[in-house]
Amino acid sequence: MSATLLLLAALPSALGLARPDGVGTLPALGWNSWNAYFCDVNETKLLSAANLIISLGLKDAGYEYVNIDDCWSIKDGRDNTTQQIIPDPNKFPNGIVGVASEIHNLGLKTGIYSSAGTKTCAGYPASIGYEYIDAATFAGWGIDYLKYDNCYVPGNWSDAKASGDNYNYSTSNTAERYRIMRDALVAQNRTILYSLCEWGQAKVWTWGNETGNSWRTTGDITPDWNSVMSIFNEQTFISNYTDFTGHNDPDMLEVGNGNLTLTKTRSHFALWSLMKAPLIIGTDLSKLSQENLDILLNKYLLAFNQDAVYGAPAEPYKWGVNTDQTYNRTNPAEFWSGDSSNGTIVAMLNTLDSTRTMRADFGEIPGLDADGPYKMLDAWTGESAGCVKGGLDAQVESHDTAVYLIQEYCEC
Ligand SMILES: *[C@@H]1O[C@H](CO)[C@@H](O)[C@H](O)[C@H]1NC(C)=O
Ligand SMILES: *[C@@H]1O[C@H](CO)[C@@H](O)[C@H](O)[C@H]1NC(C)=O
Ligand SMILES: *[C@@H]1O[C@H](CO)[C@@H](O)[C@H](O)[C@H]1NC(C)=O
Ligand SMILES: *[C@@H]1O[C@H](CO)[C@@H](O)[C@H](O)[C@H]1NC(C)=O
Ligand SMILES: *[C@@H]1O[C@H](CO)[C@@H](O)[C@H](O)[C@H]1NC(C)=O
Ligand SMILES: *[C@@H]1O[C@H](CO)[C@@H](O)[C@H](O)[C@H]1NC(C)=O
Ligand SMILES: *[C@@H]1O[C@H](CO)[C@@H](O)[C@H](O)[C@H]1NC(C)=O
Ligand SMILES: *[C@@H]1O[C@H](CO)[C@@H](O)[C@H](O)[C@H]1NC(C)=O
Ligand SMILES: *[C@@H]1O[C@H](CO)[C@@H](O)[C@H](O)[C@H]1NC(C)=O
Ligand SMILES: *[C@@H]1O[C@H](CO)[C@@H](O)[C@H](O)[C@H]1NC(C)=O
């Protein structure tokens, strides 16, 4: 056995899908067509999004993937000779290869979508039984990211009835369906980030790290507060499965969509960033307000999400009004903290219906001295909160999240 093999053999079994080029080590940043356009996607919209990612400063902030979701192919089946899925020539007159090449010319990457079933969720050809053909096709087109959904699963692939908490879900048929595509992708001579979208079934977080770079943990998000809170709360109980290379995915961003107010949108983005979720924008960028753009560009939250030294997400250090500390879709944990290269980040989510004073008490926050004093910065305004002793009282509006960076000791 070579020294390398010996070293690998000694590593823990929770080894993730690490790539030689480091792709997927940090949560993916990008844009996806679904939440903006659903099935109504085409080349013009993709390229317009790609150009806006540049002109709005999103590329400079780190957003790099421009991803096509469902409905990109013809519905009538595969090419009879090559067995490849055929891009819809009306929507993509230059093929997927054409749009991918334009996106690459802009210095961005591109993603595509399929399902681990016979059809995609919208009824287009999908990849089960064709994994190697599709992976090779995607690689040949210059694809950099695959979102792999969970619709139209053939009956013989359904999971055996799980026998409680002791069942080893990495032996499930679901895990196997996702492993086949992993192996097909890894066999290509191009790195394709692998994003599992199986809605949190079969306890995917227990086998996600060895299978993909991220894994959806819940059903689809919708652009309303109930959905954001409910998904957020579910992550609280599985947050420790996220670290470098493998990330819980609470679904794409709804910033700019539905009736999320500015305060709720701030919370959504802050909480997704702090969970170290992939941050995949899903709105029509030509209609994005300046306030919502500023949220997506928040450099302190992005720096936490993309920290190259600390891979763990923020954790609740106090639950606040939810004294039961159990699943509660309206009132998840409110007080969160996490370590980063630039200090400890602390976030306080007000789940109640009116403004209240919330205290970041240093004595309660892991790793801090009760007295400090610490130099603190408000992550929303970028303004210094001064040199703070003991803790800081913040007025937090209903459904808003105050975020502070606790930087270093100071003298006051
Ligand atoms: C996932 O795998 C990567 C690479 O092997 C490892 O660094 C990381 O700690 C793993 N994540 C968890 C939560 O164990
Ligand atoms: C493949 O062949 C079948 C049978 O001849 C035909 O109905 C179908 O349209 C063909 N598919 C494509 C994509 O050309
Ligand atoms: C894409 O859709 C938009 C809006 O419907 C339309 O203006 C544009 O021409 C379409 N582009 C293609 C390539 O079909
Ligand atoms: C389901 O059937 C297909 C087609 O016969 C086969 O390739 C596949 O291995 C089967 N899956 C399982 C889990 O047995
Ligand atoms: C679950 O099954 C996999 C595959 O057989 C095995 O490698 C792993 O060690 C098992 N995990 C546990 C906790 O038994
Ligand atoms: C990657 O694979 C494709 C298709 O097999 C081949 O044409 C290409 O030359 C390969 N590229 C590299 C860098 O090996
Ligand atoms: C996460 O925590 C759960 C519950 O304490 C534990 O069973 C599991 O092994 C942990 N997972 C990781 C990857 O640390
Ligand atoms: C907007 O919010 C209300 C509750 O305030 C909710 O009932 C409704 O479904 C939301 N609309 C959308 C489009 O999310
Ligand atoms: C974090 O600290 C580093 C080193 O001081 C600095 O270069 C970087 O701009 C800081 N990032 C943020 C978001 O504060
Ligand atoms: C959620 O927490 C709030 C605040 O503690 C409480 O009033 C409510 O009853 C809880 N809901 C559930 C379903 O437990």
Can you summarize this structure?
The chain is α/β, with parallel strands linked by helices and 412 residues long.
Notable traits:
GH; glycosidase; eight-stranded parallel beta sheet; alpha/beta; binds 2-acetamido-2-deoxy-beta-D-glucopyranose; 16 strands; 11 helices; glycoprotein; signal; Immunoglobulin-like; hydrolase; 412 residues; TIM Barrel; globular; disordered N terminus; six-stranded antiparallel beta sheet; 2 domains
Report on the architecture of this protein.
The structure is a single chain. The chain is of the alpha/beta class. The chain folds into 2 domains: 3-305, Aldolase class I (TIM Barrel, Alpha-Beta Barrel); 315-409, Golgi alpha-mannosidase II (Immunoglobulin-like, Sandwich). It has helices spanning 3-10, 34-37, 43-55, 95-105, 131-141, 173-186, 208-211, 225-236, 262-274, 290-296, 299-305, and strands at residues 29-32, 65-67, 109-115, 145-149, 193-196, 214-216, 247-249, 279-281, 315-318, 335-340, 343-349, 356-361, 374-378, 384-388, 391-396, 401-409. The strands form 3 sheets. Strands 7-6-5-4-3-2-1-8 form an 8-stranded parallel sheet. Strands 9-10-11-16-13-14 form a 6-stranded antiparallel sheet. Strand 2 (65-67), helix 4 and strand 3 form a beta-alpha-beta unit. Helix 5 packs across helix 6 and helix 8 (225-236) packs parallel to helix 9 (262-274). The longest helix has 14 residues, at 173-186. It is globular and about 75 Å long. Residues 76-77, 79-80, 86 line the site of one 2-acetamido-2-deoxy-beta-D-glucopyranose. One 2-acetamido-2-deoxy-beta-D-glucopyranose (NAG) binds at residues 154, 156-157, 173.
